[in-house]
From TrEMBL:
InterPro entries: CheY-like_superfamily, Sig_transdc_resp-reg_receiver. GO terms for biological process: phosphorelay signal transduction system. Keywords: Phosphoprotein, Two-component regulatory system. The modification 4-aspartylphosphate is found at D52. PROSITE patterns: RESPONSE_REGULATORY. This is Chemotaxis protein CheY.
């Protein structure tokens, strides 16, 4: 199964998501700030990144730009996780380098569909 890098600083969210993703068979690597996320993307080689946009140390916008500008990580799909759900926010995360956008609160079944689409695989039941 695919390896997911979850970059999220809120414990309730990373705990909830990592447990549910693991139950679906995904390997989950955690990072709690944008700088750690960029480093773990380079070292753990995930198949996909779930990236909170409001992170400490290095925000998700900067992390996405760094990942997409690095030849080693540029092809890894990034799904932005953000509480920003205003008109135009989806376009902003796409311009920052993310491949898709998922507003918080997380709709887990929709997120699974987005992960499957990004990986080119159907979601697991």
């Amino acid at each position: 199964m695919a390896k997911i890098l979850l970059v999220e600083d809120h414990e309730e969210i990373w705990d909830f998501l990592s447990r549910r993703l693991k139950r679906r068979g995904y390997e989950v690597v955690l990072a709690h700030d944008g700088e750690e996320g960029v480093l773990k993307a380079r070292t753990s080689r995930p198949d996909i990144i779930l990236l909170d946009m409001n992170l400490p140390v290095l925000d998700g916008w900067s992390a996405a730009r760094a990942l997409k500008s690095d030849a080693e990580t540029a092809r890894i799909p990034i799904i932005a996780l953000t509480a920003h759900a205003m008109s135009g926010d989806r376009e902003k995360v796409i311009q920052a380098g993310c491949d898709d956008y998922h507003p918080k609160p997380v709709d887990f079944s929709k997120l699974l569909t987005q992960i499957g689409a990004a990986l080119g695989t159907p979601p697991s039941p």
